[in-house]
Amino acid sequence: MITKEQISTLIQEKLEADDCFLVDLKISTGNKITVLIDSMSGISIDYCIQISRLIEGSLDREVEDFELEVSTPGLGQALKVKQQYVKNIGREVEVTLLNAAPHKGILTEVTENGFTIEEEKKVKIEGKKKKELKIFSHNYTFDEIKSVKVVISF
């Protein structure tokens, strides 16, 4: 049986050498292998092909057949690894918490245990008629969030 550890070991050295990182690796029933990779500067189709060929060349279809898909995470997918958070500093994200309403804001900082977003809100200031725009900073730990997605704007 093909394992996640086996695939991860096959590609880890190449990914590290090329300043890339593994986002997700799934092996479903029927040996459908799905590998999601990324880098700080993006991934080309040619690079996905290189990783695909590296995996295919190391596995024997005669011993165990498999289906392989190597790609980058899609635009609407949640961030999964710390490197993705770092890559998206300065972009607007939507944070869905485990036990509270979602927040939108600009991702400003990533630490070992979490991240910070800045959210703009119009608030009523005492003694003034108009609401003013204020920036609120929110700190989250990775274990208190359900998902974080980059907000796509055109």
Outline:
By secondary structure, the protein is an alpha+beta fold. It has three helices and eight strands.
Give me the secondary-structure topology:
Blueprint: H1 4-17, E1 20-28, E2 32-39, H2 45-58, E3 67-71, H3 82-87, E4 92-97, E5 103-110, E6 114-124, E7 131-141, E8 145-150
Parallel strand pairs: 2-3
Antiparallel strand pairs: 1-2, 4-5, 4-8, 5-6, 6-7
Helix pairs in contact: 1-2
Separation of the first and last Cα atoms: 44 Å
Using the alpha-carbon principal axes, give the shape. elongated
In CATH terms, what is the architecture of the largest domain? Answer: Roll
Number of domains: 2
Radius of gyration: 20 Å
Structural class: alpha+beta
The CATH topology annotation of the largest domain reads as SH3 type barrels
| Fraction in helix | 10-25%
What is the typical, i.e. mean, pLDDT?
92
Tell me the total number of β-strands: 8
- Any low-confidence stretches, pLDDT <50, length ≥5? none
Described by strand count, sense and barrel closure, the largest sheet is: 5 strands, antiparallel
Percentage beta strand = 35-45%
- In order across it, which strands form the biggest sheet? 7-6-5-4-8
Name the helix and strand elements from N-terminus to C-terminus, one letter apiece.
HEEHEHEEEEE
Number of helices: 3
Provide the CATH top-level class of the largest domain: Mainly Beta
InterPro entries: Ribosome_maturation_RimP (IPR003728), RimP_N (IPR028989), RimP_N_sf (IPR035956)
Function: Required for maturation of 30S ribosomal subunits.
Family: Belongs to the RimP family.
Keywords: Cytoplasm, Ribosome biogenesis
